[in-house]
Design brief:
This protein is mostly helical and 201 residues long. It has 2 domains: 62 residues; 124 residues, no CATH class. 53% of the residues lie in helices and 7% in strands. The strands form 2 sheets. The chain has a two-stranded antiparallel ribbon. A two-stranded antiparallel sheet has the order 3-4.
Length: 201
């Protein structure tokens, strides 16, 4: 006696009704609505799977890149974070005069992001925005930060409480590689937004 090759009836995965599939792998009935709905779900799952895999590979690549950079240059990540924050500060204070000497904002000089408390001796404040202000290159580099006038400028612009905080803040802090990478990424984005808001892009 020959065995039947007709697939058994099964339940449609969309509408739930029983139907006679044409093949053993038919998941839904012959309704166009069910076929479209099921097809969209399959496509969405496939897309989500591809995106998850892409994110996983990207995360693995970032980790590998970070480890490679750390081996090649231990200060690389610190520098990238500092560069991103310094650029943000220069645009944040774009319309302010030099914090130390009062040189007008649009003077044709080079502008730095000057730290009141030096980065090497005060790692806790290295990336703190209260410790960094737009400063002309003469004050920042040629006058070693022009510290006394920088302090006066902070008090005049922001108040004595800010200077008090900077003078009493802890001196040291350790930053993880993950923190530094995130810090650089955040401030690059913040700078783009700030430039657009100020019409400087």
């Amino acid at each position: 006696m020959a065995l039947s090759t007709t697939p058994r009836p099964k339940k449609c995965k969309e509408c739930g009704t029983k139907f006679q599939p044409r093949g053993s792998f038919d998941p839904v009935c012959s309704s166009i609505e069910c076929k479209v709905a099921y097809g969209l779900k399959v496509a969405a799952k496939s897309k989500a799977k591809r995106e998850a895999e892409a994110k996983r590979k990207a995360a693995e690549q970032r980790k590998a890149d970070k480890e490679k950079l750390a081996r090649l240059n231990p200060g690389y990540l610190e520098g990238k974070a500092q560069d991103a924050i310094n650029e943000y500060v220069r645009y944040r204070d774009y319309f302010y005069p030099c914090i130390s000497c009062g040189k007008p904002a649009h003077s044709l000089v080079k502008w730095d992001a000057g730290h009141l408390k030096t980065r090497g001796a005060n790692s806790f404040l290295r990336y703190h925005l209260w410790n960094i202000n737009r400063q002309c290159v003469q004050c920042n580099q040629h006058k070693s930060g022009n510290v006394a006038e920088h302090e006066r400028g902070i008090v005049a612009r922001y108040g004595a409480e800010r200077l008090e905080f900077l003078n009493t803040a802890p001196r040291s802090r350790r930053y993880s590689d993950e923190y530094l990478i995130r810090l650089a990424r955040i401030f690059r984005k913040k700078t783009i937004i700030l430039k657009k808001r100020k019409g400087l892009d």
